[in-house]
């Protein structure tokens, strides 16, 4: 199957939705609703505010926010100017965020007020002459008026909730003031971004754990929205309700819950984080029809719905990704919803979806599935990336198609390592293809830990832990973690004279220097770490040793 990729910027989808479905609810945030007409007008005003901050075509603007209407408006406003969105995890530690902001060259950072103060302080400490402007965003202003008033109540519960949502706002001009003072930006057709312009930078890592910004063009993103619609057969006139429980700073959430949702003019129910109670409450208010999630979310929702008698039968299509979908989780979800759940596969470098199971009786939980429309795949010998292997043989998966990225930001050498002649992307994943064309993942050549749908790069965690006085050597590996997929475990050799090391001490040392999901959940003390003939620590051998100890 092939699709025709429209020759247009990603923002054209929002323009169509506003023109054709202006009165339709575009965003639902705890019952605070925004129509497509209002969203479009808000984007024009936010774009003018960004112009006032000096943002122009090609400039980078970092967004470090949870899912909320302000995030959506900022995303489209940046693209409206022909500028580039840099998506960042709002829970990153200050130093790590500053590093990524500096690497991207972002001139403005729209940061969640809960962490904007720490980020601004870290920026100031870095002493960069081209330091970005940090603008705090108070997400409580996106809440319904009644909920905003409730946060002001002089009771401990309200104070705690308010602190969790907005923290202690820094003494910086807040985003809403810039937007309120701006006049909507008039349409300028000649200033619209072109399909080949970079639209988005999302950071990912590799076997070295060195964060790299994946450059995705407007054409890459438009292509993946068109491919997704061809796969699901969803139409704008159907009035789909998409649940935005995946974070927009993750490529999976960005595509299916933001870009694709606008492509089909869907209503997006926004949640700043995944919470079973919040999802079920939203479901009672505005039943969803389309859900993108990771398997642990499906398992928890299924259990809660079964225990409480909650009705999830409105969900007709569910896409599971980022980690393997257990067959039992799929069966239980389909039993409680009556809809279909399929597994999708992709990478940030593929915008991100490249394969999926069919939305019919052929679906296979646990399999990556078949190539998306207009997507070519080949399975090759890992040692000879130009030589394809026979059906049924293991090999490295390579992908080509209009959704494949244009390269890593300012990393030509690393781009050349993964992008081959003909547009083929080396995924590093070892797979096998059967006679029916279904592809199944059999090994991960990159030593990446996938926990709760997020990727953790062991070397990054190891680099931080090596600085602890109590640790002589460390290897970080992923161990079976139940519905999380994997849990991060640090195997350590203690420094001379140190007799013990507990998890609390490790977590205190890490502090806010890395995302919470990357912090080790267990610490195992070993007398030595297995090494190769040249002295390299063998993480795979460490993991096998820990598995054997656990079994014993």
From TrEMBL:
Domain AMP-binding enzyme C-terminal: 461-536
Protein name: Long-chain acyl-CoA synthetase
GO BP annotations listed: fatty acid metabolic process
Organism from which the protein derives: Xylanimonas ulmi
Residue ranges annotated for the AMP-dependent synthetase/ligase domain, each copy included: 14-409
Lineage: Bacteria, Bacillati, Actinomycetota, Actinomycetes, Micrococcales
Molecular-function GO terms, alphabetical: medium-chain fatty acid-CoA ligase activity
Entries under PROSITE patterns matching the protein: AMP_BINDING
InterPro entries: AMP-bd_C (IPR025110), AMP-bd_C_sf (IPR045851), AMP-binding_CS (IPR020845), AMP-dep_synth/lig_dom (IPR000873), ANL_N_sf (IPR042099)
């Amino acid at each position: 199957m092939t699709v025709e990729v429209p020759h247009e910027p990603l923002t054209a989808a929002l323009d169509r939705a506003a023109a054709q479905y202006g009165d339709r609810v575009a965003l639902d945030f705890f019952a605070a609703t925004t129509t497509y007409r209002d969203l479009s007008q808000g984007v024009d005003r936010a774009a003018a505010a960004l112009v006032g901050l000096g943002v122009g075509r090609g400039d980078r603007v970092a967004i470090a926010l949870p899912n909320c209407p302000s995030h959506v408006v900022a995303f489209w406003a940046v693209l409206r100017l022909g500028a580039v969105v840099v998506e960042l995890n709002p829970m990153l530690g200050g130093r790590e965020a500053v590093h990524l902001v500096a690497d991207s060259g972002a001139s403005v950072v729209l940061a969640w007020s809960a962490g904007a103060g720490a980020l601004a302080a870290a920026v100031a400490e870095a002493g960069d002459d081209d330091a970005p402007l940090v603008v705090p965003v108070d997400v409580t202003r996106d809440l319904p008026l009644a909920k905003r008033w409730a946060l002001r109540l002089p009771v401990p519960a309200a104070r705690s909730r308010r602190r969790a949502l907005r923290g202690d706002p820094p003494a910086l001009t807040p985003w809403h003031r810039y937007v309120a003072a701006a006049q909507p930006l008039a349409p300028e057709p000649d200033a619209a971004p072109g399909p080949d312009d970079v639209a988005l930078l999302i950071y990912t890592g590799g076997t070295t754990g060195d964060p790299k910004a994946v450059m995705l063009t407007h054409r890459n993103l438009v292509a993946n929205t068109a491919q997704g619609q061809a796969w699901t057969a969803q139409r704008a006139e159907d009035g789909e309700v998409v649940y935005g429980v995946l974070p927009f700073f993750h490529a999976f959430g960005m595509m299916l819950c933001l870009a694709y949702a606008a492509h089909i003019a869907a209503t997006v129910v926004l949640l700043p984080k995944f919470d079973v109670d919040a999802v079920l409450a939203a479901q009672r208010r505005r039943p969803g029809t389309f859900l993108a999630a990771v398997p642990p979310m499906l398992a928890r929702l299924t259990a809660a719905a079964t225990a409480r008698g909650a009705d999830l039968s409105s969900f007709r299509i569910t896409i599971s990704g980022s980690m393997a979908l257990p067959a039992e989780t799929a069966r239980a979800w389909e039993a409680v919803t009556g809809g279909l759940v399929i597994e999708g596969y992709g990478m940030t470098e593929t915008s991100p979806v490249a394969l999926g199971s069919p939305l019919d009786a052929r679906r296979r939980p646990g399999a990556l599935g078949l190539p998306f429309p207009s997507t070519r795949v080949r399975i090759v010998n890992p040692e000879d990336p130009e030589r394809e292997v026979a059906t049924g043989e293991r090999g490295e998966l390579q992908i080509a198609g209009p959704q494949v990225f244009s390269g890593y930001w300012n990393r030509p050498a690393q781009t050349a390592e993964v992008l081959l002649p003909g547009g083929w992307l080396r995924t590093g994943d070892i797979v096998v293809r059967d006679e029916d064309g279904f592809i199944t993942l059999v090994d991960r050549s990159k030593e990446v830990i996938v926990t709760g749908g997020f990727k953790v790069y062991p070397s990054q965690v190891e680099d931080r832990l090596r600085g602890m006085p109590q640790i002589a050597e460390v290897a970080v590996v992923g161990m079976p973690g139940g519905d999380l997929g994997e849990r991060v475990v640090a195997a350590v050799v203690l420094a001379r004279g140190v007799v013990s090391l507990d998890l609390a001490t490790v977590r205190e040392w890490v502090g806010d220097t890395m995302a919470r999901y990357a912090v080790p959940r267990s610490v195992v003390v070993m007398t030595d770490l297995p090494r190769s003939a040249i002295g390299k620590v063998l993480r795979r051998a460490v993991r096998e040793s820990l598995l054997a100890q656990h079994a014993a």
